[in-house]
Amino acid sequence: MKTRMNHLAAIAIFAIIIFAGNVNAHENKAKASSHEALTETSLQIENWMTDEHVWNVQAAPGTAREAEAELKVESWMTDQKAWELAYLAATETEVQLTLEDWMMNNTYWKI
């Protein structure tokens, strides 16, 4: 009981300090860290970025260009019945609970 009261007192004091500290928080501006640039530099498009020869080259030695998998429309994707809400909501029934012998045996429940 004493420990619980000490914890409650500590939490109350901490909460009062937090609330009192926020009362005088008027127009405090956050300063940017030294790692952030205050102004962004403008981006420039360079010739190699738009050159078709750079982007349409064969794979470099030791690397392979991976082909994308072919996407096919399957029948369930276009079936209207598959997208109806009533069809998607599965109707599940719960199995009725029954009492078994071990549940009513007093020897199992005595400690």
Task: Report on this structure.
The structure is a single chain. This protein is an all-alpha fold and 111 residues long. It contains seven helices and no strands. The chain has helices at 2-23, 47-50, 52-55, 75-78, 85-88, 101-104, 106-109. The chain starts with a helix and ends with a helix. The relative contact order is 0.03. The model has no long low-confidence stretch (mean pLDDT 78).
Average pLDDT metric: 78
Low-confidence stretches: none
Radius of gyration in whole Å, from Cα?
Answer: 35 Å
Which word captures the global form? Answer: flat
**Proportion of helical residues:** 40-55%
Broad structural category: mainly alpha
Number of discrete helical segments: 7
Strand share of the residues? under 5%
Terminal Cα span: 28 Å
SSE series: HHHHHHH
